[in-house]
Amino acid sequence: MAEEVAPHAKDISRALGGKVSEKEIENELNNYLNVYRVSLDTAKRSIVRKHGGNPADLAMGVSKTIKDLIAGEQSVDLLCRVVSVDGRQIDVEGGAKDILYGILGDQTGTVPYTAWVTEGLSLHKGDVIRIRNAYTKEFRGQVQVNFGNRTSIAKESPDALPPYDPGKSAPPTGKPTPLKVIDLREGTSNIALTVRVLDVEKKQVAVNGDAKIVFSGVLADETGKVKFSAWKDFGLSKGDIILIEGGYVKVWRGIPQLSFDERSKVSKLEATALPPTEELEKSPRVWIEDLAERGGAVDVAVRGIIIDIKEGSGLVYRCPECKRVLRKMACRIHGEVQGTADLRVKAVVDDGSGALIAVFGRELTEGLLGKTLEKCIEEAKESMSQEVVRDQLADILVAQPVEVRGNVTIDDYGLMMIVESAKILKVDVEQEARAMLEELEGLEDTA
Amino acid sequence: MNRETAWRVFAGEYNESNLEVSDGGERSPSFLVTPLGARINRLFVVGVLTDIENVGTEQGPMWRARITDPTGTFHVYAGQYQPVAAAVLSKMKPPVFAAVAGKSRVYKPDEGTTYVSIRPEIVKPVEAYLRDYWVLESCQSLKRRLEAAREAYKMNPPTEAELRKLGVSAGLSAGLVKAVGHYGKVDLSRYSSMLAESVRYLLPEFRESAPPETVTIAPPEKVIEKKVVATADDKTEDEVLILIASLDKDSKGASWDAILEGAKKIKVDKEKLEETINSLLDKGLVYEPVLGRMKKI
């Protein structure tokens, strides 16, 4: 047992209100640990209980590194760095509740976390923090750290945590989980993913004031595409098939994105390990219900029926400063301004499994209307109403089956697709019906 | 907050539903759960608007519309709180293909009696293609529910987790567990024949007579020529169909007495006439706007 016993004895004594001496407890603790060989956590809790105390009063959990975390720890201490932090509101019994979530990292690996109590809690990316009394659970097959009522968090100086040295320590955490792109979710970490590089670009970005080189682009397997950021030069080039081990998923601009760095292992595979680039470049067709579950996706195709055209569709005017759409000719940030005319559609596309808001930009809207922005402005002037364009769009689009393709993001208002391309769907109903009938009759025959 | 999904469900399944559930909480939406586990808060239907009537008052109109699909009839009610839908409905001239997106409504006047209807958000006249497209989508949707229900019926009792493992969606798994708890294991053959019938509805080889469009567009001589190859029953149906159309002078439909009179002239007796009209009703080629009157669709 590398850990000092004394501070834990002190902790137990405090939890018992000082009615048993520290010396006595230390002996007892040593007995539990060295003779009976139970875990420190169990030992502490047992001693407190034995003396009639409440184990919940213990302030100090067991210090661990991320690599050693297992699901179901009752009370664990960590010294780690905040890799990312995000906030979100969730619905619980009795109203809405704010939570914080993200990723923690230390020299041994990374792990997702959720802070269920956020009052007075301030976490910033890059902070080194000492967490006491956190607990762990398994969530979607991964260990997750939770901060609850009993958890305390203190900020430490940045050098309290040794910088990660790839030369000395082993790669992070246990065995990476093999996953497909379609399985990637916010907070997933330490994955093993076989993908083809569809696109890669070297960029310089500023991280906390320092210039850093990042390689970003799009990866794909047969289930879908995902954006990535590689914080080390793995020598990736377009068309490569690679196996990434390690890495974590974080939502960026409403879409899950994969990040990996020097702690991850990247190996190149045979060119035959995945279908060819042309095949993987196609946007996979997905159900809206699955998009809601995945929390957004890169370049997917959805087939559905437009069942409504939202307010703010048609001819709109934007603030010349911030591009926000004006309401009553005023911008909510810049006040009364001379707006710039634009065309757009916000349509509700529903595929029977779910619904999303599809946003069509000017070019697509002009195509749908079969007329230019200038013509629309003219017509609006003639009829003295901006709404005339929206009405025309509703005539064309409502109850229209469409296939739309683009990136899908998710936020508090639900799913939204920025439409890259769209087509009016013409399905050969007879042919599809015939295929279905054959299938049904086939079933009858075997039944 | 995700928007509630607009389910594609046939009238035959929707109208069989009498289980209303809510997730609890004051503001959470309520759902109508069908015997096959569709949890419907919103739905999208396309069918033939066969009649529209003001069941309210002159000042406070409440429009009731009937929309039929291959399996039954949806009842749509729009009043002062659905001004846009009500305005569109009131101007529609049945029969016409109509698309409706709206919320499920449940009315239970007393224990054991349930009426379900639709409160429309959007109403739009559409073309035949969209009706066919919708029937196809609804068939696919019904097929998924049927398959999931078959799996659920093998479990004792069915659980969401087990259904999810089989790839059934989260929403349907939850709905099916509720449905089995309330309706028990319903006779699935009723729904599998509903499915087969609806798929066949889309295929010309299963239509026993020429589509109504051909009959109206073609001049009478041509129609008669065509009938050489048709069977005797088809011939009678076509004749009766033309008869009904010709007797419908005020577009309120042809009266029964007039049809009977006209039938005698083309040598169709009363029994044969009734049989023929029933068949036409079944095929959705005619309907009864008011009792005792027949109208061609």
Commentary on this structure:
The complex is a heterodimer of chains A (447) and B (297). In chain A, 21% of the residues lie in helices and 42% in strands. Chain A contains 9 helices and 22 strands. The longest helix of chain A is centred in the C-terminal third of the chain and has 18 residues, at 429-446. In chain A, 35% of the residues are buried. Mean pLDDT of chain A is 87; it is low at 165-172. The radius of gyration of chain B is 22 Å and the shape is globular. In chain B, the strands form 3 sheets. In chain B, strands 1, 5, 6, 7, 8 and 9 form a 6-stranded mixed beta sheet that branches. A 3-stranded antiparallel beta sheet of chain B has the order 2-3-4, with helices on one face. A 3-stranded antiparallel beta sheet of chain B has the order 10-12-11. Chain B has 2 domains: 6-198, Nucleic acid-binding proteins (OB fold (Dihydrolipoamide Acetyltransferase, E2P), Beta Barrel), CATH 2.40.50.140; 209-296, Winged helix-like DNA-binding domain superfamily/Winged helix DNA-binding domain (Arc Repressor Mutant, subunit A). Chain B is of the alpha+beta class and 297 residues long. In chain B, helix 3 crosses helix 5 (170-183), helix 3 packs antiparallel against helix 6 (188-201) and helix 9 (232-247) packs across helix 10 (256-265). Chain B is built from 11 helices and 12 strands. Chain A binds chain B through residues 287-289, 292-293, 305, 307-308, 348, 350, 352-356, 398-399, 401, 412-415, 427, 429-430, 432-434, 436-437, 440, and chain B through 1-8, 44, 46, 99, 101, 121-122, 124, 126, 129-130, 132-133, 135-137, 139-141, 143, 169-171, 192, 195-196, 199-200, 202-204.
